[in-house]
Every structure is written in structure tokens, then in C-alpha cells.
């Protein structure tokens, strides 16, 4: 396992990290005992960064993760969670007010069974009034940082332009990291265009969803996936080609996503301990870059085709 610094935070994290969204049953139902074992497998395999959110499974992911963390030495991991997106009784809710942000931090700590959060993020800022994020949400989190409740503050979004917009409008040092997903994958490497900018601000970069929310998987895209049909079809052809070469596209996708040392870490999520161990094995081998280029060629003009979050 390789380790990289998250900007100027002082946190040095594993190149592949554990995203806990699956623990909330976001993608399909889970077996809680196996989900907890998946967290143990991640730590045992060298991962030292865990990311979660109250939104995932509408508090379930944090609750299950909290049960897992009871059995893990707090010194073995950095923990990241979020504010802004929530839900109850199957209904999604959003609240980016400073008051709710502060309350949410303490509620998350209670669910997680911890007394300190290493990284607190404003979750998916495209759903917020960006001016409120600048004027209210982030100042509230900085206040908690100043009090030592959290160590570092970040923002997350699918849209890279939104991340830059906010960073350009807050005092230097307010935002210490960004989390962006589906933009450093075999079918979309747009994140690379923004690395110089983030580095110039001393901001660490966290990548997520190396399988592009299922586009790059043998299982195929779920019905809810927002990708346009042409992109889905192009990725399907890439999956088939990798199958013919006896090289699972999941393996290639994860290897590719962790290959750029300018990206501190890439998050993947699974509630299956065997999948966790398999992905750790994958990244201990270098990617077949000839196959990477062939896959990108197959995806062709659908490279960097994105979508709106929902």
C-alpha cells in the first residue's frame, strides 16, 4: 500500500481508502456482520482513511460504522464525514445552515462513537446555495476547527467548477481538501485539469468512485444511474473487451484511479470483506497501461461525458 499526503493537512493516507456508503445499504441490502468485517479487512489491509456521511442510508452507514470502530484502535485511521445532506423515512433532505452543520457534527460523533472528527466536509455543494456555503456553512465548520472539535475542513461535489467557485471566495486555508467523484476514472479524467489549481492553494485531493458508479463493472450500471445511454453503451463495450482479455475492468479501473500520486487517495465502497481484500490485491500490481489506452479508445468520444447529480 502506498501513502500520500492530503494537501497541507498533515494527514498521510493510503492510496486506496474505505468509503462507507455501502454500509448504509445504499446500493443493496447488507449483512451487518459482514459489513463490519469489511471495515476490519480495510484496516488490516493497510487502509487508514474512512469516509462516511449521515446521508448514506439516512444515518445507517454511520451507525454501522460506529459499531465497527468500537473494535479498532483510534490511532489506526483518519475519519471523514459530512454535513448538508440527510434523510429520514426514505426521503432525502438538505440543510446547509450553520446551525445544522454544527449540530450534525456532534450527532455524527455520537453515532460513530468517537469524540473527534479528522475531516469534516460540506456534502455535495451543488445542492446548496453556494453563497450560503461560503457565508455560513464553512464558517461554522471553521469555528469547530478552531475549537478542536474537528481537525480539518473540506468540500465535496461532482461538479469541479463548483469546488473552485467556493474556494475562490473564502479566506485562504478555509478549505483544506476536496472530494470529487467519477472524474478520475477510465472514462473521465477531468479531475486532472484541476490538480494544478488545487495544489496552488495547498488543497488536498480525494477521488471517489473509481468504477464510475458501476459504469466500469461486469455487474453493469444500476437502473438509477444518471449517465447518458451512449456513455453506458461505450462502457459496456469496454467491459466486454476486458473480459475477453481476462482482465476484469474493475481491476483495471481501480489500478488506474490510484496511479496518480497527485491524488492523495481514491475511495471505493463495499460491505463485502472479500471485495475489500480483492481490491487491495489489485492495487499491489501496476495497471496494464496498454489496456488502459485500449479501453479509453473504445470509450472514444464518450470520454469526459458526465451528468448532473441527483
Which descriptors would you attach to this protein?
eight-stranded parallel beta barrel, 10 helices, 37% helix, single chain, globular
What pattern of helices and strands is seen along the backbone? Answer: EEEHEHEEEHEHEHEHEHHEHH
Give the N-to-C terminal Cα separation.
Answer: 34 Å
Q: Return residue spans where pLDDT drops below 50 for at least 5 consecutive residues.
A: none
Average of the residue pLDDT scores: 96
Number of helices, where a helix is a run of at least 4 consecutive DSSP H or I residues: 10
The helix-and-strand class reads: alpha/beta
Round the Cα radius of gyration to an integer and report it. 18 Å
**Major beta sheet summary:** 8 strands, parallel, barrel
- The 3D shape can be described as globular
Strand content: 15-25%
User: What's the arrangement of strands in the largest beta sheet?
Assistant: 3-4-5-8-9-10-11-12
What is the helix fraction of residues, given as a range? 25-40%
Number of strands: 12
Please describe what this structure looks like.
By secondary structure, the chain is α/β, with parallel strands linked by helices. The chain is built from 10 helices and 12 strands. The two termini are 34 Å apart.
Structure at a glance:
This protein is an alpha/beta fold and 310 residues long. It has ten helices and twelve strands.
